[in-house]
């Protein structure tokens, strides 16, 4: 399984294209505000790859994540690259740029809860306790299957619906990566004043966000991989990661080390992704 290290993380034999290449980026729900970290990281990769490459955000309407990835794999997408959580099926169908975008933070899940459910979640002491809490996760997300296979009570629905389900008491929590919920709850305080963030538990499994392209698009794949590798080598990746407001909030607000930690397996993680060197994962 270590072959990915030699094949993809060794010196990349890559020649900058004679002409600049345009990247159309597919963002679920077109939400570049919530995805500003990922969009900014793509911009950084293109800058570090050299060649004057450009990017634009493609209009994906209300197409969900699973459909976007399927369109990309079959060549029917109006965009070249998107980002999502990883599983074996996605790895097999698409070209996966093997650099974890959030350095594994997406596999550290905390719960958006309501004022009504926060005491029940706060009382959790054991895995059995946590498995009695009804948890929401997005339709088609790998996280949903990971949580289900670990024995949790999972309700799946569309991204925005899950906030409403917590606010309305239909579920007790909404599992989000530690870099996600603070801005999400803040953005909805006007209409969903019942939402808050649990400060007690954290579910941890090996997982993260990756860039995906059509398997035939080797040119853009090489550009992104080269750019991300160069960003690691000159320190700009870690500088971007550590200083982005969304990531800084993780360490300032989520208090990862103070939470009750529940570790579960990720049966969907491709062996090649598990073999990515430790330097690309936070805390390893």
TrEMBL record:
<protein>
    <submittedName>
        <fullName>Uncharacterized protein</fullName>
    </submittedName>
</protein>
<feature type="signal peptide">
    <location>
        <begin position="1"/>
        <end position="20"/>
    </location>
</feature>
<keyword id="KW-0732">Signal</keyword>
